[in-house]
Design a protein that fits this description.
4 helices, 154 residues, alpha+beta
Length: 154
């Protein structure tokens, strides 16, 4: 009988300790500004869309006129059944992969893109149609805030 009471009491103490931790650990970071590698931020759905790219492609002719193209139609794909890399471009690498496929399919064209990338501070211009994406691009620095933060503290 004493063992049952002791076991119940031990379970109650563990339950109260875990419940107190669930309530107080987020307050440690969010309210008091505490930093520790053992206590993580209490954030839900933060940075979900960071790095996503929205782009409109066009082909420029010899006179400088641009004609918009649909990337799905140009690659012979239906939007609903297109592969993920074509539907959801992630980062500049994702944009360049789609551009590479378009260049390979369309032949020697002057392919331009007007693209924006999602950052923690909002949408930022990635390409303004200034370069032919079928030709090598000059080196470009990475845009700050375009990659989701890892689970490590900085």
């Amino acid at each position: 009988m004493a063992t049952t009471t002791t076991a119940r009491r031990a379970r109650a103490i563990v339950f109260v300790a875990v419940a107190a931790g669930l309530l107080l650990i987020p307050a440690y970071r969010q309210l008091f500004g505490g930093r520790s590698r053992f206590v993580r931020d209490w954030e839900l759905f933060n940075e979900v869309g960071v790095g996503l790219v929205v782009a409109e492609f066009s082909v420029r002719d010899g006179q400088g006129r641009e004609a918009p193209i649909d990337r799905y139609a140009a690659l012979g794909r239906e939007r609903a059944t297109a592969p993920r890399w074509l539907r959801t471009m992630t980062g500049e690498a994702g944009l360049m992969r789609v551009a590479g496929e378009l260049c390979a399919r369309l032949g020697s064209v002057d392919l331009r893109a007007r693209a924006r990338i999602a950052t923690m501070r909002g949408w930022v211009l990635l390409h303004a149609g200034e370069h032919d994406l079928c030709r090598p691009l000059p080196p470009r620095p990475q845009i700050p805030g375009t990659r989701p933060r890892g689970h490590e503290d900085r």
